[in-house]
Amino acid sequence: MTRPDKREASQIRALNCALGQLNRADGSAQFSAGNTSVICGIYGPVDVKLYDEKLDRAHIEVKFRPDVGVPMTKDRWNDSVIRSTFEREILGQMHPRTLIQINVQVRQNDGSVDAAAINAVTLALVDSGVPLRSMVAAATCAVYANGDIVIDPTQEEISKAQSTHTFGFSSQQTDGPAYVDSRGDFTMDQYNSCYDMCATATERIFAFMRSAIESKVSKESLNRA
Question: What pLDDT sits at residue 2?
C-alpha cells in the first residue's frame, strides 16, 4: 500500500531527541518520531509523603498530560501503564522511602504517541541517573481491514486502521514484551506479525537511544576537560 508520507510499510519515521533540556528537572528528554513529539522530566529521588512511603523501595509517580486540554480517562490509563512498565525496570530498592516522579507532556500528537512517551521516559530516566535494570523501547503497528500492516502509523493512518498494537521491549528481556496495548479487531496471525514488526523496529530505536546517550556523555566529557 502507498502511505501518505511515502514510507515503506516497515519503515519508521525519522527520530530525534534532546537530553537535559529542562533545567529544573533531575533529568529530561524530548523524543520525536516524525511530527509526534513527547517531553519527559524526571524529579528525584526526593522526599516522599508519608502515605506514599515504601520501606523497601522508591515510590514511582507518573503524570501524563496531553497536547491539548486537560487530562482525561485515557491519560489516567497512560499514568498507570507507564508506572507499571517502569516499576519493573527502575531499581527502586536502591532508594527506599523516596519519590521518583515522571512527568510526561505530549508536545504534538501525530500518531504512535504511546510508544513515543515510553521512549521519552527511558531516555529521561537515563539522563537523570536513576538506576535501571534495563532500557525500554516501544513501537506501534496499525492493521487495516485488507490485512495490510504498517509500522509507526501517523494519526491519519490510525484513524483508518482496524486495530493498533503498541509493544515495548526491554533491552535485556527475553521472556516477552515489557508493555503491550492492542486495540480493535484482529486475528492472532496479525497480532504476531505486529509483534515481530515492532520488535524489529525497537532494535533501531535502541541503537538510536544509545547513540544519543553516548553523544551527550561525550560532549559533557569535553566540556569538563
Answer: 82
